[in-house]
Amino acid sequence: MNEKILAERYRLTEQIGMGGMAIVYKAVDMRTGHNVAVKVLRPEFNEDIEFVSRFQREAEAASKMTHHNIVNLLDVGMDGENRYLVMEYVQGKTLKEVIQERGRLNAPLACQITIRILSALEHAHRNGIVHRDIKPQNILVHADGHIKVADFGIARIADSATLTRGDMVMGSVHYFSPEQARGEGASAASDIYSTGVVLYEMLTGRVPYDGENPVAVAMQHLHATPTPIQSLAPDVPPAVIGICMRAMEKNPALRYQSARDMASDLRLALEDRGQRPPEAEPEMEIRQPRPHLRENRVPGDSGRQQRIPDGSRKLRMLWAALSVAVGIGVITGLFFGIRALVEHYATTTLTPDVIGMELNAALQRMTESGLEAQVKEVSSDEYEAGIVIMQVPEGGETVQKGRDPVQLLVSTGARKLEMPSLTGSSVSDAQSLLKSMGITTIITEKAVSGDYIPETVMDTVPKAGESINRETEITLTVSGGQTTVPDFSLTTLADAENMATDSQLILNPRLDRVDTENPAAHGLVASQDPAAESRVTLQTPVTISVYRCPAQQRSRVIEVTLPESESDINVRVTLQAIGSTMEWTFVTYTCTVENGRTQKVTIEFPDERDYLCMTYADGSLIQRLDLSEE
């Protein structure tokens, strides 16, 4: 691709990926010199509220997370109509590419990669974020071996209707959880399921479910059992197989309930220590041995009552000690419980809503609430410089003081634009570039030129390099090519039509008539505008008039029948010589409701040729007559 500068900062050097809603470019941050990845929302989705909101959610989700196994967000903004995210650039391959190149991976390597994925998910889930689209295409393997999870929030597939979107979804449906396939909302357990599918693919070299179309694959997630791992990869330890299959349970309640739990079991499996036992089932009881006192029972006593001899002084003292201990324990528990509540309310607060506030005032509000803030700047045509345009977390959310700072996105004002150099560009390319900069008023003016090919920009107002903004009116002077108007005088109408075509001109369909007593002049061109030998742009309209001699004039009365309507109808009657493409307009009138829908119209033929007659009602052809038949 030709290099392009985004937001006057990021030089896009090559396209490195394309998803259902965004295009990803490798770019150079011209301020730092570092390589970055720039994700740009596809232009066709710029006005789509759903896609724009998803793109915005990815920015919000990424801004909440900083983790060594997650592709980190560096910047977010708009350049004209282009919405973009700037992420750290990961030099390497996707996990999908690694699997395609190497086939199945050995169990220790597959487990290590999965642990890194789970580490990223644990961080995300703690921040209230569900990925919803875990798949090998979204796992980046750095050249040095680091694992990074990408695409939080943008590639969401939350309902079964999206299964019909073709190839964009095929890469995701293989990793759907059953609840996603049913069209239900995704949860952290859904991410666990998808991670299990990714682990299965690494261990076996193939996805657990495949089919001819996305719907067939989704149905297998709901009802089918995958091919046993041991039959495809006999060397995989049973403990690892058990972990994978538990993650892929169709019932979310039977899966791992956290990414941390699954990662712990994988670590145990790598250490060959087996697998952590699953959570206790409801019917299971875990009993701990309880200390008991030696007791004396009366014969026949059921054991429900214990009798302590009056002389058992030591036993009484033991009971007293136990009572005191229990009392102290209760008091201690109450103390620490109350202290924990006090500490909780003392260390948490509600995030103030500072969107729309001036930055200094917003920072003051954060300080008053005991919160820190991190500021990121972005240009905005809607907000003045220094105004907060977005915050994460949103206002009203409960947050812990002294932990993660509140992210504030602050406007730097409307981006300063510079008129680009457009001379020599095609008019369509020039208009597209200006529109991408947010320019809405673009005027084109045709000019005669033998130096520029037609539809090429010759000049602009303002000139290249001048400061502009989105409201600036841009005028493009565009080459219309060049031709010379021939001399039509005293030519026949048929010759005039041919001469205009040869000179790349068009004739005005309105044909004026000039009366004459000379029969020989009847039907010949009497005048023209522009004048002969004028230099004009290609396809310039030329208006001509022809002589009409009453003694030579042929005419015909036709009947025009219009469709029934309760409103007035605009009528146009034209003549076209048989064998010609030129339609001459001879009669126009408005037929009112009161006049009825049938009228007689007199047609005067401009020359001796045979003609077709067309009638148009409000622009639609309703009647076509061959006037040469009578």
Tell me the number of helical segments per DSSP (H or I, 4 or more residues long).
14
Give the oligomeric state of the chains in this entry, treating copies of one chain as homo and distinct chains as hetero.
single chain
Overall structural class, as computed from helix and strand content, comes to alpha+beta
Globular, elongated, flat, extended or rod-shaped: what is the shape?
elongated
Q: How much strand?
A: 25-35%
Number of strands: 31
**Rg on CA atoms, Å:** 40 Å
Number of domains: 6
Strand order of the largest sheet: 1-2-3-4-6-5
Largest sheet: 6 strands, antiparallel
CATH architecture of the largest domain: Orthogonal Bundle
The CATH topology of the largest domain is given as: Transferase(Phosphotransferase), domain 1
* CATH top level label of the largest domain: Mainly Alpha
What gap, in angstroms, lies between the N and C termini? 65 Å
Residue ranges: pLDDT <50 for 5 or more in a row? 154-171, 274-309
**CATH homologous superfamily identity of the largest domain:** Transferase(Phosphotransferase) domain 1
- The residue fraction in helices comes out at 25-40%
What integer is the average pLDDT? 82
